Amino acid sequence: MVVKNSDISNHQMGNLVKKAIVQAKFEKRLILGLSQVVKYLMEGYSDIPTICLIAPPKQGDFATHMQEVLLQAYCLENGINTVYIDCADKISRILRLPTTESCALIFANAAGDFDCEGTFLDEDYHLTKIEKMIVNYCEEHWDEDEYSTIRLPEK
């Protein structure tokens, strides 16, 4: 039985995002923190397929909000996949971080890794099967309020 992205619930997608960030951290393909993500992208790596995870900043944190809006615009302009998640605290809990980060970036595997599938902008890099499912899910539900923000599991 083949599962289509349209058959996946927001809850199931949250579990896939969790798995993707844990795997990317283990493989050293995860960048955490708004300033670190911006720095990485400004160093000229925007041509490597990536998924940018953005959580809403804390209430009243206008500086972070403005930086995230600019990052979202940059991602849109440069074809970087953007995934909106429900809570920055959950990323910290999932990864057992001492700080809360409202932004993370998963960059693609080098070609030849066993879990990669498909060719993107650069033939030397590929997203994993799970990461491709996340991108497809977000593209399918881009305009739907119910699905536009993915809810991560609590732990």
UniProtKB/TrEMBL annotation:
InterPro entries associated with the record: GADD45, Ribosomal_eL30-like_sf, Ribosomal_eL8/eL30/eS12/Gad45
Pfam families assigned: Ribosomal_L7Ae
Coiled-coil ranges from the UniProt annotation: none
Gene Ontology cellular component annotations, sorted alphabetically: cytoplasm; nucleus
Tree of life domain: Eukaryota
Alphabetical GO biological process terms: regulation of cell cycle
Domain Ribosomal protein eL8/eL30/eS12/Gadd45: 17-107
Entry's family note: Belongs to the GADD45 family.
Protein name, UniProt field: Ribosomal protein eL8/eL30/eS12/Gadd45 domain-containing protein
Annotated source species: Chironomus riparius
